[in-house]
Structures are given as structure tokens and as C-alpha cells.
């Protein structure tokens, strides 16, 4: 195999990542800010807190947040702190 | 293709800690392919698990950036984080028996991806035209026809441009460096 062929193989070893994956990871700081605001509201609003405890995923969807496993885990940690 | 920043990992990490969202976007852009390749090619996670592991890696990186002791060691740190998230994903999917010991070839796979990241860095240093045409052909698996249409180039010139840019990349990567071994052909003339 020529050096060019070896380099071509190494380029192929890192194919493009699905666009949506990269976008979601890029938006993490903004998403975290959004969640921090939601946590504050939950802490101040007893009814919202009850909804969060009863069904966090549904509450997140209602707030326009996709309840991915990492988002749910993060929020649960914040809520028990 | 978004042009990567020339800032070092440690510079980007420092800016991320200071809340610079553009630095975070650049860090994600730089390491997305690396993390993606580890979860899909080294650990061979199925698509849904791979996406969850990928997001978990960047979530942990974002949350634990303050715990990184040596900012110059970001790459091994994120590699380690990706290994842990991949193993967690395998456990969740009930295949923990497979990962009681590290899957065969993980270390070799990671070493190969490290070498690939170095080539990627050299690629980012080429002209935007060369970088884009090589990325489209080798990384996005686009045909000569698609590349010709997208870049408004005569299809008959694509192969020669790829060969020329590959030569530039080889020079930039360094003739003295010997890439880790691989098995299949890297010829450019096998796709139309």
C-alpha cells in the first residue's frame, strides 16, 4: 500500500458524524441554561414539582425539552440536590 | 464543511471553562468524528445506543471539564470517557458478558483513530478546496458526480484533484511518519 493509500484509509477511519448528533452536542450549554431555569421554576412552584416527580419525561416534553437519557439523569440529580 | 479553528485543545478547553460557547462548538466539531468512530467502529454499538453514548460523552465532558488536570491531555481524557460510556451502553443493552474484558482490538482501534486524528489535523491545514474535496470523497463517501455538482467542478477533473490533494496531505502529514497498518485499498479511482 502506498503512503497516499494509507492516508486515504486513515481519512476513511473518521467518517462524518450525523449532523443531528453534532448539533445536539453543540447546543449543550444553551440546553443546560434552559434546564437550570426549569429547575428554578420547579423549586419555586409546588405543583410543578409534583408534576416533575410524577412524570418528568412528560413535563419535559410539555416544556419543549427532549427528554433524552442524559437530560433526564441531569435533571433528576439537580432535583434531589 | 465548517472550517476548524487552529486553536489548540488546551486553548479551547480554557475558553470553554470561561463559558465561551463558540469554543465549545469548535471542541465538539473537532472531536465529534473521533467519539463517533469509537462508539460505532471500535465498540460497534447499534445506532440508537451509539447516539446515546455519543451525547453522554459530550455531556460528561461539558460537566466535568473542571476536573481535567492537564488541558493538553484532552484527547486521551475524552477517549477514556468514550470507552466508559460505550461499556455502560453495552451493559445497559444486556451484553455485559461481552465486555467483562475489554473487547478484542480496542487498543489497536484507538491507536488507529489517534493516527487518523493526526491526519485530520493535517487535513484542516490544507487549502479549503483540498480539505473539502478529500473530506467529501473519503469521509462522506460522495461520488465524483455528487462532488462535481456540489462544488461546480467538471466530473472528469475530480479524480486528478483528489490525487493532487492527497499528495499535498501526504506532504503535510509528514513523509517521515508511518501510518499504522491497514488492510484495504485506498485507491481513489474506484467510485463513480
Keywords, separated by commas or semicolons:
heterodimer, A: 81 residues, mainly alpha, 78% helix, rod-shaped, B: 192 residues, Rna Polymerase Sigma Factor, Chain: A, Arc Repressor Mutant, subunit A, 2 domains, disordered C terminus
Secondary structure elements and their pairing?
The complex is a heterodimer of chains A (81) and B (192).
Chain A: H1 3-12, H2 19-26, H3 28-44, H4 46-54, H5 56-62, H6 69-80
Helix pairs in contact in A: 3-4, 3-6, 4-5
Chain B: H1 9-17, H2 21-42, H3 47-64, H4 74-92, H5 106-124, H6 128-139, H7 144-151, H8 158-173
Helix pairs in contact in B: 1-2, 2-3, 2-4, 2-5, 3-4, 6-8
Mind telling me which CATH architecture of the largest domain in chain B this is? Orthogonal Bundle
- Fraction of helical residues of chain A: over 70%
Class from helix and strand fractions of chain A: mainly alpha
Order of helices and strands of chain A: HHHHHH
What's the count of strands of chain B?
A: 0
Mean pLDDT of chain B: 85
Summarize model confidence as the mean pLDDT of chain A.
Answer: 89
Give me the Rg of chain B, rounded: 18 Å
Helix content of chain B: 55-70%
Elements of chain B, N to C (H/E): HHHHHHHH
CATH topology of the largest domain in chain B: Rna Polymerase Sigma Factor, Chain: A
In short:
The complex is a heterodimer of chains A (81) and B (192). Chain A has 6 helices and no strands.
Q: Any overview of this molecule?
A:
The complex is a heterodimer of chains A (81) and B (192). Chain A has 81 residues and is an all-alpha fold. Chain A is built from 6 helices and no strands. Chain A is 78% helix and 0% strand. Chain B contains 8 helices and no strands. Chain B has helices at 9-17, 21-42, 47-64, 74-92, 106-124, 128-139, 144-151, 158-173. Chain B is globular, with a radius of gyration of 18 Å. The model of chain B is unreliable at 179-190 (pLDDT under 50).
Amino acid at each position: 500500500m502506498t503512503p497516499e493509500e494509507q492516508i486515504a484509509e486513515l481519512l476513511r477511519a473518521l467518517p462524518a458524524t450525523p449532523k443531528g448528533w453534532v448539533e445536539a452536542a453543540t447546543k449543550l450549554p444553551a440546553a443546560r441554561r434552559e434546564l437550570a431555569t426549569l429547575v428554578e421554576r420547579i423549586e419555586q412552584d409546588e405543583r410543578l414539582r409534583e408534576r416533575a416527580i410524577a412524570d418528568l419525561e412528560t413535563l419535559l416534553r410539555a416544556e419543549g425539552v427532549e427528554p433524552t437519557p442524559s437530560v433526564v439523569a441531569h435533571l433528576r440529580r439537580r432535583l434531589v440536590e | 464543511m465548517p472550517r476548524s479553528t487552529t486553536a489548540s485543545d488546551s486553548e479551547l478547553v480554557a475558553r470553554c471553562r470561561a463559558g465561551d460557547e463558540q469554543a465549545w462548538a469548535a471542541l465538539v466539531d473537532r472531536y465529534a468524528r473521533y467519539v463517533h468512530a469509537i462508539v460505532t467502529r471500535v465498540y460497534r454499538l447499534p445506532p440508537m445506543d451509539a447516539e446515546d453514548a455519543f451525547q453522554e460523552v459530550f455531556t460528561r465532558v461539558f460537566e466535568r471539564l473542571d476536573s481535567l488536570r492537564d488541558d493538553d491531555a484532552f484527547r486521551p481524557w475524552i477517549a477514556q470517557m468514550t470507552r466508559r460510556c460505550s461499556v455502560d451502553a453495552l451493559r445497559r443493552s444486556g451484553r455485559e458478558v461481552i465486555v467483562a474484558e475489554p473487547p478484542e482490538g480496542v487498543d489497536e482501534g484507538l491507536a488507529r483513530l489517534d493516527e487518523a486524528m493526526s491526519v485530520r489535523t493535517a487535513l484542516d491545514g490544507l487549502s479549503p478546496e483540498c480539505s473539502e474535496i478529500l473530506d467529501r470523497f473519503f469521509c462522506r463517501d460522495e461520488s465524483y458526480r455528487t462532488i462535481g455538482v456540489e462544488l461546480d467542478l467538471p466530473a472528469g477533473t475530480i479524480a486528478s484533484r483528489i490525487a493532487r490533494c492527497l499528495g499535498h496531505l501526504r506532504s503535510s502529514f509528514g513523509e517521515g511518519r508511518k501510518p499504522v497498518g491497514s488492510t484495504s485499498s485506498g485507491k481513489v479511482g474506484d467510485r463513480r
